# Entry
Amino acid sequence: MRMNDIATPDHRFGGEDIDGLVRVHKKNGPLQQAFYYSPTVFAADMARIFGRWWLFAGHSCLIPNPGDFFTWKIGNEPVLVVRDDAGEAKAYYNTCRHRGSRICTSEFGHANRLVCPYHRWTYGLDGKLLMNTKTDFGVDRSELSLHPIHIRNAAGLLFISLADDPPSFDHAFAEITRRLKPHGMERAKVAHTIDYTVRANWKIVFENNRECYHCPSNHKEYVRATYDVARDQARTDPSLAPALDAAIAQANARFRALGLDEGDVSSNMTGTFFRAHRTPLVEGYASQSMDGQPLSSLMGDFKEPNAGTLRTTVFPNFWQHSGSDYAAAARITPLGPTTTAIRATWLVDKDAVEGKDYTLDRLLPFWDVTNRQDWTICENQQIGIGSSRYRPGPFSLTKEQNVAHFLEWYLREVSGPGAARKSA
Ligand code: FES
Ligand SMILES: [Fe+2]
# Structure
């Protein structure tokens, strides 16, 4: 057993009354221990949050041509995302209508027809079964199409919902699409991915993402490039605000001159589950990189570097930082109460050439280093929360409001009307 292996106190958990736990939650603090360890809560999270809300599945540039597909498994649901003959991204449950085999078995691939490996039932890219089943099986093939999944393509980000009747995504879709479009994500390519396995509950991972209180002591590379810490400091020491406001105003004027949206579209309003926020980088930084220099050729519509960073966050499983030169994204896939898979993806312009326009040696460290620092924090927190002496402590009223907002959203969805609809 490694030093930091998690001795999961799972035996203490199971069969919790989730609504009861929600009721005793104290606002402006983390959750009760069971939320981070219990298999019962985890099952509820998968059914009520991940089984219903809009999930980031992948980038559309992964499937540039008709017939290109990728697969993903979220909870027990195998998902297939494919570009159809009309060029639209479509999503289906990756389960055959005959005896249920998984149809596409690789993570990435290309197929003109979707052929089940078991008995070779064959489907078109529109999900329709192509063979005649009426005579031999007694069921018309029109009743045996692949089960569709709701999917939206927000300027190159593919979001799916497993719900029959998903929550509205229209506002998020419109804002993300408008703000992300100049970044040319549809004309991007994946330069690299890293799969991390973090031994922490997915909510610990997401909570960590929602604040930068931990940044000064944990992210010396990240904080050099951004105003996050200065912003936090100005909230507690108003004398610092004028200089910061002036720097941000200057950067925003530059964004406007470039035709870019600035600032924050979302807020901490009740129910808001996304944000798309362009933030400036500090003086001397044209990119979120170790030395401030761009890491690849310009993406999308950009004619010059330094477009700040467009931070796009969608509860419960996605964030991305997009600059003028590259984008770095995270997709969260909960695997169990104390285990979370995170796929980090680095994207550059599709015509960028490795070795000439970018090198992985320069492209990866800024976020890979920051990610690993975060995963260490998350695993430490998971272990500490396992203590019999754990009691939720107070959040900072100036630096952790976004965590409180995330938890407010989560608690309502795991226990509220969404839950009722799902179990109805
Ligand atoms: S299970 Fe797919 S063809 Fe039989
Ligand atoms: Fe962090």
